[in-house]
């Protein structure tokens, strides 16, 4: 979950075409450079060993989208600092996290050092890897999930979904949260200015930020709800549920464009829960 607070070198941003490798390179650099500051700002909200699905503050213990995780082999795609995997480990899971950002994985290691898990928990394994080419044998995991990881930041989400389908065992679960597609129509600001439609829901041109030397330093990609449904079905998943979290009255924390004001009027997040077909 990015909120755009760490892009000091950006001189322009807008809706521009970008190829896949440039997008991945830009986002890898963004998260490497922002990892420490990101955790300093959002660490108290995310916790050291908590499983937050979204800025709305929806916790896995409240929704149970992954089911019984005890002794399950679970993969986190785009794990960041690994808080979700650490929570799963405390619940008895055998968790593995992958992230393309070495900077975020350094923060995962720091959390492991500074906030050791209980003796009963098996510490997660964290690997530096690209979600488009997961370093695992087929049928390696019972469950896979992503909390705002990887998918918004790659051009070819179909490749990531195909890789997840490859490494999850038939009948296994795949759940992920991402920016709600309708949010794309509005400016990314938390106040009243963020309530006026400025962009077409159907325009899939990515949002790209450019540095002073003309290089892309951040890219985020848009898919409609229909796009997500089609991609999931094509990858071999059956959609079990689609969650559009309402903003809880107890959460008064704005996170970039996610805010109590906007969240009271429209969803900022969508969470897909699916099962990999057995055929």
Q: What's the quick description here?
A:
This is Class I SAM-dependent methyltransferase. The protein is an alpha/beta fold and 279 residues long.
If you had to describe this structure to a student in words, what would you say it looks like?
By secondary structure, this protein is an alpha/beta fold. The protein has a single domain (10-276), classed as Rossmann fold (3-Layer(aba) Sandwich), CATH 3.40.50. Helix content is 28%, strand content 23%. The strands form 2 sheets. A 7-stranded mixed beta sheet has the order 4-3-2-5-6-10-9, with helices on both faces. Strands 1-7-8 form a 3-stranded antiparallel beta sheet. Helix 1 (20-46) packs parallel to helix 4 (102-114). It is globular. The two termini are 34 Å apart. Pfam families: Methyltransf_11.
Strand content: 15-25%
Biggest sheet character: 7 strands, mixed
Could you tell me how far the N terminus lies from the C terminus, measured between alpha carbons in angstroms? 34 Å
Q: What is the spatial order of strands in the main beta sheet?
A: 4-3-2-5-6-10-9
Count the DSSP helices.
7
State the CATH superfamily name: Vaccinia Virus protein VP39
CATH architecture: 3-Layer(aba) Sandwich
| Sequence of secondary-structure elements | EHHEHEHEEHEEEHEHE
What is the CATH class designation? Alpha Beta
> How many domains?
1
């Amino acid at each position: 979950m990015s909120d755009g607070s760490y892009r000091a070198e950006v001189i322009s941003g807008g809706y521009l075409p970008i190829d896949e490798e440039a997008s991945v390179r830009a986002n890898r650099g963004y998260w490497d450079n922002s990892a420490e500051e990101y955790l300093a700002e959002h660490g108290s909200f995310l916790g050291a060993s908590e499983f937050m699905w979204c800025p709305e503050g929806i916790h896995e213990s409240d929704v149970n989208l992954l089911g019984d995780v005890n002794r399950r082999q679970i993969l986190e795609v785009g794990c960041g600092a690994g808080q979700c995997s650490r929570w799963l480990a405390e619940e008895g899971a055998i968790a593995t996290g992958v992230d393309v950002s070495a900077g975020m994985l350094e923060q995962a290691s720091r959390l492991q050092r500074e906030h050791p898990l209980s003796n009963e928990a098996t510490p997660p394994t964290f690997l530096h890897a690209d979600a488009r080419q997961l370093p695992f044998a087929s049928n390696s995991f019972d469950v896979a999930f992503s909390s705002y990881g990887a998918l918004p930041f790659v051009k070819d989400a179909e490749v990531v979904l195909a890789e997840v389908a490859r490494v999850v065992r038939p009948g296994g679960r795949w759940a992920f949260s991402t920016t709600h597609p309708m949010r794309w129509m509005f400016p990314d600001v938390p106040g009243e200015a963020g309530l006026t439609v400025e962009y077409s829901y159907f325009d899939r041109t990515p949002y790209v930020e450019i540095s002073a030397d003309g290089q892309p330093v951040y890219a985020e990609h848009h898919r409609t709800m229909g796009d997500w449904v089609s991609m999931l079905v094509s990858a071999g998943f059956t959609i079990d549920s689609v969650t559009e979290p309402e903003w809880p009255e107890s959460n008064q924390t704005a996170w970039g464009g996610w805010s109590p004001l906007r969240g009271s009027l429209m969803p900022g997040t969508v969470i897909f829960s699916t099962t990999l077909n057995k055929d």
